[in-house]
Amino acid sequence: MEENSTMAPHIKVTDQLQEGNVLAEICEYTTLKGSKNIRSASHIYAANQANMKLKFIRLTLQGATVKIEPGLLHYMKGQLSVTAKSTGGKGITGFFKGKINAALTGENAYNTEISGTGQVFLEPTFGHYFILPLRQEELIADKGIYVASTEGIQTGAAMQKNISSAIFGGEGIFQTKVSGSGMAIFHSPVHLDELIRIDLHEEKLSVDGNFAVLRTASLDFKVEKASRSLYKTYRSGEGLLQTFSGSGSVWLAPTAALYESLDRLDAIRDVTEAGKSGNSNNADAMKE
Question: What distance in Å separates the CA atoms of residue 200 and residue 47, rounded to the nearest whole number?
Answer without folding.
Answer: 37
